[in-house]
Amino acid sequence: MITYIHGFLSSGKGFKPMWFANKFAQSSLKFHAASYSQKSPLKSIQFFEKLIEKSLLLSEPPLLMGSSLGGYFAFYLAQKYNLPFVLINPVSIPIKLFEQYKRQA
């Protein structure tokens, strides 16, 4: 199974996850793109930890695919759970992303 983690201010129904969902629908691979709360980075990570732990209990370890901030989360989670991962334009220093957003808000 491929678990897609979207970026900041995006969702599991955004353009990129829907594009990938359509591509993977033509294959035997399962593709899942969840929307998650972006109010707290900790809550975002906890959401995916629960999702991954459930997958591991079912003996279906996911391949993590993350874009932008989702790439940062995917890298962290892949290291924690020893999972394969693909990063798409990952943010490397997320604090700068949050500071920039706060200034614009």
Largest sheet strand order:
2-1-3-4
Unreliable stretches, pLDDT < 50, 5 or more residues? none
Report the order of strands and helices: EHEHEHEH
Give the beta-strand count.
Answer: 4
Task: Give the tags.
alpha/beta; globular; Rossmann fold; 105 residues
Q: How would you describe the overall organization of this protein?
A:
This protein has one domain: Alpha/Beta hydrolase fold, catalytic domain (Rossmann fold). It contains 4 helices and 4 strands. The N and C termini lie far apart (37 Å). β1, α1 and β2 (31-34) form a beta-alpha-beta unit. The protein is α/β, with parallel strands linked by helices. The longest helix is centred in the middle third of the chain and has 17 residues, at 41-57. Helix content is 50%, strand content 16%. It is globular and about 45 Å long. Strands 2-1-3-4 form a 4-stranded parallel β-sheet, with helices on both faces.
Blueprint (SSEs and pairs):
Elements: E1 2-5, H1 15-25, E2 31-34, H2 41-57, E3 63-67, H3 69-81, E4 85-88, H4 94-104
Parallel strand pairs: 1-2, 1-3, 3-4
In short:
The protein has helices at 15-25, 41-57, 69-81, 94-104, and strands spanning 2-5, 31-34, 63-67, 85-88. The protein has 105 residues and is an alpha/beta fold.
